[in-house]
Amino acid sequence: MSSGADIPPDWPNRAWSRRVRHRPHDWHVQEMGSGETLLLLHGAGASTHSWRDVLPRLAQRHHVVALDLPAQGFTRASDRRRCGLVAMSTDIASLCDAEGWQPRAIIGHSAGAAIALDLGARLTTPDGMPPMVIGLNAALDRFEGIAGWLFPVLARVLAINPLTATIFTMGGNPVNRARRLIEGTGSTLDPAGLALYARLISDRGHVDGTLRMMAQWDIDGLLDRLESLTAPCHLITGENDQAVPPRVSDRAAQRLPDCTVTHLLGLGHLAHEEDPERVCDLVERIVSEPTPRKTS
């Protein structure tokens, strides 16, 4: 799964994969279905595989596009300086324009939800309105306390060290390492799901891309303008999420002008992988409503 490798034939939804060369990246995109467009953005350290069960379900009624973020999964980043929030949002907006995608809704998971909010201000639907944003366990908060300054510094140091990615992919059974990482977020995946993450965390290029995203991540500008974002927004949060606690979505919803929150009992950070049917049913209901309604 290195930057020069083709997409493996056994990768989830491989039949709908294609490459789109649009500066500054060589994108990996999965696209299926017809109707209004839904754009799916995974979180840090994941890939299109995160939507493996969501994509075909939503494609029964919609045109659905999922992509790998720059330098992660199978998207080859020509400029690895463009792995931060604003740069990725800008580049995805340019890709959407080039491909003629005008999403009715942008669905983002974790850090992908932050990108979705920023991206929503750059795109319009066919009727000229901002697209709806649906955030799954949305990472819409600054790091608190000592992590606020220690984590960004540590990530930058790790990202500039050429040996870092190699070290991260060494040592121990990758499936066991993946299980520890996933369980630490409050989620439980089946063996097939764990195996996919094990493949990702064993790939040096993917790990390097994830570290660069962490090192370049700066959410302050987005958080400072939450009150000015007019796109309708719905935040979905798993009550068991240990990575992005539900209170993060609750606080963000209080600041966003047009936002509702739904809490899902029994699910963690990877709620859409744990129970894709439940999440897809909720997404379908949200997308079908002309205006989001307050829920609990």
Question: What's this, in brief?
Answer:
By secondary structure, this protein is α/β, with parallel strands linked by helices. It contains twelve helices and nine strands.
Q: CATH homologous superfamily of one domain - what is it?
A: Alpha/Beta hydrolase fold, catalytic domain
CATH topology of one domain: Rossmann fold
Helix count equals 12
Going by CATH, the architecture of one domain would be 3-Layer(aba) Sandwich
Subunit arrangement of the protein: single chain
Report the strand count: 9
Biggest sheet descriptor: 9 strands, mixed
Give the overall form.
globular
- Structural class by sheet pairing and helices: alpha/beta
Strand proportion, as a percent range, falls in 15-25%
Mean pLDDT: 89
Description of the molecule:
There is one protein chain. The protein has 296 residues and is an alpha/beta fold. It has helices spanning 54-58, 85-99, 111-120, 147-160, 164-168, 174-183, 191-201, 204-216, 220-224, 246-255, 271-274, 276-288; strands at 17-22, 25-32, 37-41, 63-67, 76-77, 105-109, 132-136, 233-238, 259-264. The chain contains twelve helices and nine strands. Strands 1, 2, 3, 4, 5, 6, 7, 8 and 9 form a nine-stranded mixed sheet that branches. The longest helix is centred in the N-terminal third of the chain and has 15 residues, at 85-99. The chain is globular, with a radius of gyration of 18 Å.
